Amino acid sequence: MASHLVFTVIAQDRPGLVDRLATAIADAGGNWVESSMARLGGEFAGIVSIDIDEAAISSLHEKFDLLLQDGIAITLRSDANRPAAPSGKAAHLDLVSQDHPGILRQITRVLRERNVSIEHLETEVVAGSMSGESLFKASADLRLPDGLDPSALGDALHATAADMMADINLIE
User: Fold this and answer.
1) Is residue 58 domain-shared with residue 95, that is, in the same domain?
2) Distance of CA 109 to the CA centre of its chain
3) Do 68 and 118 fall into the same domain?
4) Of 10, 82, 131, 140, which residue is most buried, by most CB within 10 angstroms?
5) Are 73 and 41 in contact (CB under 8 A)?
6) Could you report the per-residue pLDDT of 43-64, keeping only the tens digit for each?
7) 99 and 27 both lie in a single domain
8) Residue 106 domain-assigned?
9) Distance from CA of residue 23 to its chain's centroid?
């Protein structure tokens, strides 16, 4: 019987990390399904979803233990069944603001209050092209709950953005 596993991985960034991880999964008989990985602050971090036969999970643990000995930390979460596809409308959010503490908190509070799920989020702080001031940029793929009007969400986000002098674009 196939199991669905999700795990995180973090290690000091160096060439070959993804290959070592992919080899461990393949050698245990697992199938790499989806992932999101990035270099952040000199560290390599990722989340990976695989399918693997239940009988092969102990072999996968052994292979992951070998990676751990080499400084590759893996946190495994098991779920026997693949989750159902999410319902609700998809939307995309882009935000740009002068950098200051609390930007993400203000935006995610608006999303939480409306039961909006963040499916993918990327943030960064960059130098502004003209002024050189630090700019906070966020890009998120969202899943709106059934019944939430995207324009109502947009209005709430724009009200918050105006308070922090940020530019927000919500695209359905």
Assistant:
1) no
2) 18
3) no
4) 140
5) no
6) 999 999 999 999 999 999 999 9
7) no
8) yes
9) 23
CA atoms within 13 A on the CB side of 91: 26
- Same domain? For 94 and 166 the reply is yes
Same domain membership, residue 148 and residue 99: yes
Looking at the DSSP assignment, which residues form a beta bridge with residue 7? Answer: 48, 76
Could you give the 3-state DSSP secondary structure of residue 50? Answer: strand
Q: Total domain count for the chain?
A: 2
Same domain for 72 and 98: no
pLDDT of 53: 93
pLDDT digits (tens, 9 = 90+) for 58-111: 999 999 999 999 999 999 887 656 667 778 999 999 999 999 999 999 999 999
- Between CA 53 and CA 56 the distance in angstroms is 5
Pair (28, 47) in one structural domain: yes
Strand order in the sheet with 166-171: 117-127, 134-143, 90-98, 166-171
H helices present in 47-171, as ranges: 57-69, 103-113, 150-164
What domain range includes position 154?
90-171
Read off the tokens for 20.
Answer: 């070592």
Per-residue model confidence (pLDDT) at position 59: 95
At 14, the amino acid letter reads: R
pTM of the model: 0.78
